[in-house]
Write a structure and sequence with these properties.
By secondary structure, this protein is an alpha/beta fold. It has 16 helices and nine strands. It has a five-stranded parallel beta sheet with strand order 1-2-3-4-5. Strand 7, helix 11 and strand 8 form a beta-alpha-beta unit. The protein is globular. Bound molecules: the ligand Nc1ncnc2c1ncn2[C@@H]1O[C@H](CCC(=O)c2cccc(C(=O)O)c2)[C@@H](O)[C@H]1O and zinc ion (ZN).
């Protein structure tokens, strides 16, 4: 973690505890994880792009006026990924960054439609991500799994294409575990995606749409009812509906909370106004995630530090939060037990006199 990310209001040794705490990351986007170094390398390679290659200019470029502006900038980075080798490099480097933060397991959200429609061959795309996944697991010990998401605003063509890529046995990558829906929510009603989620679920994939990030609790209800969501991406505005909070708690539907993202995209005004406390109070399973870390000037460790401050957590509280993510993941039971045991052993050793 860089000093820029050290929150002075929480003790330094808690930062150190977080940095070495074994973790799982459930909500992080593939392209949105491209580090400034990778973005600037790709921008320099593709000189026709409007993305700056200078690191300082990049920080400015990643300052967003609202969610629509964020998506516009995001798509300009998508435009930099043009070959299967770009895809492989990005995936492998993202795994390296996760491993450095002691992330043992990550479900990476990938939008294959954005790459195939830009002309990357679909088979070569799948091979690139799988090749990087296997290399990363062997070299860094970080296990990666994929969530393929529909970029909702790109319409039902993108839904059809994403469902096809996720369910065709000749293409579907081994690491694929779930099916999602991302992008803007305003003007993109969730129920229209039901047939595509039905197909994905029938093919054994788990349902993890974004909902309630930029629209209200009714979008979260839609995601639950029509898309049979098993976890909710963000779910931020659920706090406006006490019945929804009770339902999420009772059904043990985890929320993938990404605090800094919500500030960067202006979905929430300030961290102190973030509803994470309400979620915990309501008994909801809260998981902490980073979404598009370099674009939001954060990383998963910093998100845990933010959570420690907002929820007033000590080491044991942070360990419980880390175990929530493992439990809410789509890892098999032996895999979950292994990481949870590692978290417990690490925490007890840290706290031993
Ligand atoms: N916080 C977030 N909340 C929601 N989504 C987020 C977030 N962060 C990253 N995303 C990603 O942004 C993509 C959006 C892509 C999109 O809208 C679009 C529209 C039209 C054409 C094309 C194209 O490729 O041609 C793409 C989503 O699929 C998702 O994976
Ligand atoms: Zn997201």
């Amino acid at each position: 973690m860089t000093d820029r990310l050290i929150d002075p209001s929480i003790p330094r040794d808690l930062h150190a505890f977080i940095a070495s705490l074994p973790k799982a990351e459930l909500h992080v986007h593939h392209v949105g994880s491209a580090s400034p170094r990778i973005v600037s390398e790709l921008a320099a390679r593709h000189a026709d792009s409007k993305v700056p290659s200078d690191l300082e200019a990049l920080a400015d470029y990643f300052t967003f006026t609202d969610f629509a502006h964020f998506i516009e900038v995001y798509l300009s980075v998508v435009d930099l990924i043009r070959t299967p080798e770009d895809v492989r490099l990005l995936t492998y480097e993202v795994a390296r960054d996760l491993a450095r933060q002691q992330v043992r397991y990550a479900e990476l959200t990938i939008t294959p439609f954005s790459s195939t429609r830009r002309g990357i061959d679909e088979k070569a795309f799948m091979e690139a991500i799988e090749d990087a996944r296997k290399a990363a697991e062997a070299e860094f010990g970080t296990v990666l799994r994929w969530c393929f998401d529909i970029p909702g605003e790109a319409g039902l063509v993108s839904a059809e294409e994403t469902a096809r890529l996720a369910t065709d046995d000749r293409l579907r990558p081994e690491g694929l575990v779930s099916f999602g829906l991302g992008g803007p929510e305003i003007g993109v009603p969730r129920p229209q995606f039901k047939p595509y989620f039905d197909r994905a679920i029938a093919a054994g994939l788990r349902s993890v749409p974004h909902a309630g990030e930029t629209t209200g609790p009714e979008t979260v209800w839609d995601a639950l009812t029509h898309l049979r969501a098993e976890r909710i991406g963000h779910g931020t505005n659920s706090f406006q509906d006490p019945k929804l909070l009770a339902h999420l708690a009772e059904e043990r539907i985890p929320l993938e909370v990404c605090p800094t993202s919500n500030i960067a995209t202006r979905a929430v005004r300030t961290l102190d106004e973030h509803p994470i406390k309400e979620f915990v109070k309501a008994g909801i399973v809260v998981t902490i995630n980073s979404d598009d870390p370099p674009m939001f000037g954060t990383d998963l460790n910093n998100e845990y530090a933010v959570a420690a401050r907002l929820l007033d957590l000590d080491e044991r509280g942070l360990a419980e939060l880390a175990k929530n993510a493992v439990e809410a993941s789509f890892l098999d039971e032996p895999g979950k037990s292994r990481i949870k045991d590692e978290i417990d052993t690490y925490t007890e050793a840290w706290l031993a006199p």
